[in-house]
Amino acid sequence: MIYDKHGVLQMSELNFGSDRPKAENPIKINDVSLRDGHQSLFATRGRTEDMLPVAEMIDDAGYNAVETWGGATFDTMHRFLGEDPWERLRVLKKHMPKTPFSMLLRGQNVVGYRNYADDVVKAFVQRSIDNGMDIFRCFDALNDFRNFETAAKVIKDNKKHLQGVVCYTLNQPRLGGEVYNMEYYINKVKDLIEFGVDSVCIKDMAGLVAPYDIYNLVREIKKFTDTPINLHTHFTSGMGDLAIFKAIEAGVDIVDTCIGPYAYRTSHAAVEPLIMSLLGTNRDSGMDINKINAIAEEMEKYIPKYKHLDNNPKYATTDINVLLHQTPGGMLSNLVNQLKAMDALDKLPEVFRLLPKVRKDLGNIPLVTPTSQIVGVQTVNNVLFDSYEGEYAQITKEVKDLCYGLYGKTTHPINPEVQKKALKDYPRGEEPITARPGSILEPEMDEVKKTFGDLAKDIDDEVLCALYPVTGKRFLKWKYGMEEIPADVKAKTMAEVEKEEELVRKALSGELTSKGKGNGRELEVTVDGETFTVEINDPNGPAAPQFKGRKKKEAAADETATGSVVAPIPGMIVECKVKVGDEVKVGDTLVVLEAMKMMNNLDAKAEGIVKEIKCDSGDSVAKGDLLLVVEPKA
Ligand SMILES: O=C(O)CCCC[C@@H]1SC[C@@H]2NC(=O)N[C@@H]21
Questions:
Q1: What's the CA angle centered on 383, arms 380 and 388, to 5 degrees?
Q2: Which end of the chain has the least Cβ crowding within 10 Å, N or C?
Q3: Within 6 Å (CB) of ligand 1, which residues are found?
Q4: What's the predicted TM-score (pTM) here?
Q5: Does position 175 have pLDDT exceeding 70, yes or no?
Q6: Which pLDDT belongs to residue 73?
Q7: DSSP structure class, residue 258
Q8: pLDDT value at position 333?
Q9: CA angle, corner 39, sides to 493 and 571, nearest 5?
Q10: Of 292, 183, 282, 274, which is closest to residue 231 (Cα–Cα)?
């Protein structure tokens, strides 16, 4: 008896434990907290040390699989956290030997933002397997499955699980093109099955799928295949839980969830209500809610370390606007941060307004890493540079590559005018290719070995450098003690986090004096001899104050001097292409600047001789920083 005579639910009567009768067709549940959960909520900054306390508990909870790696984790770990991504995989595997590990692999883009050569893809997948990976959720941002071929072969040769992904997106009716419909998705699923995948994932990376749409889609798929179907959706619009429920009703086999503290907003449905909602039904997961609850309570303890990374200033946990701009959560927070750094946050509405147009220009592609980044950043460039140089004045290298066909086949043809502009003087030629991109890319691993020499001590180091040459090199110097890990990269203890929170509290209550950043929103405070900058958000507003870290001295840029080349946007110097004394002509590339993961060539605007160089590979630069001086020809 679950209800008493008044119809009131008697919780004590429910058998919450995993010893309850097994359901007819139990839903299989994945946990994605340790990868997509913190990627979606906390800019992928989750540290291994905060995963270990729950690792064994998660391993014991009866999940189908646990997503521990891939996506943006590889990038953020070595770049921002000073952590070796391979080591995380090994350590987690030691603590979680029972549950299969799953990773998000961006097909030929691996865990980066461009298509890599086949030898890099092979080496990466092989080392992932050797280090403990079991299930490869393999996707391509254009749904061009030729980009799976190289990775799939290694996965299959090693008898690991290949989960093929169809990226789910919506039409933008205002802009025409009704391509993303039932027929499209059914054909894509059929293509995957023919490809030989072990399971299929419908990946709704932005949280767009409506409950009845997924219901109908799963029903249709179930008519022609027994291949297990996995739904991955985000909560963002608020439809996530409803979509999962309808998919379960339609017979979906596996769903992705997060544990409470890492769930909702731009992340995923929480596992707890799902387990409870299905209890006693034919799709009961069989999982023990008490075990999950214990994990949630442990995870809560570490949230103070990450709360400041949650950029959402709103009280609402849902955002229906995502159905219009369709930008995945991970990309949204990136856009906001970058516009902030450029003092251009007021341009965000304009970026959202133009984003669908840029998406259409670039072939009406799904927006998922790296295309979300490529389209988002190009839109930012169009907004910021448009006023004085016309649309597409600063085209990123990745847009040029996309126009050339280096990412694969776009859903619709690219706007010919944009394509022509992008491919002007493109080094591989001005005529786009139609072949599988990997088939024309020259091998890269030998060059990596030569370039990094003794610094890369093993194949894992080499693969890291192949994927991320500049930040990879910097990371290896930290790893082998050749350079000190900067303070803002090092992990903070809970005591330090608490001290920072205390500082912010004091700053807000007026106990600390402002050293006047002018606008009254930043305070410089000294505690125990250390100087900190504390950014104060509107104390009356809903957002928490943000701790910004140790104050850095920055040289003022000489923006006015003739021949000065300054950073037009903040970013990181990848390469300075010239040296002092070089003669340059208009259009010659002087510097390659990475901004928001995209490469921008900064070209000479006038003829002259390079007089001074003020930047080096790996330098972080702010907007307006002086990079070099070119003395104009008389
Ligand atoms: O924080 C960083 O700088 C690293 C990640 C940046 C890009 C992420 S990757 C996942 C998400 N999707 C995108 O297109 N961009 C973000």
A1: 130
A2: C
A3: 43-44, 72, 75-76, 328, 330-331, 334, 369, 372-373, 597
A4: 0.90
A5: no
A6: 98
A7: B
A8: 75
A9: 85
A10: 274
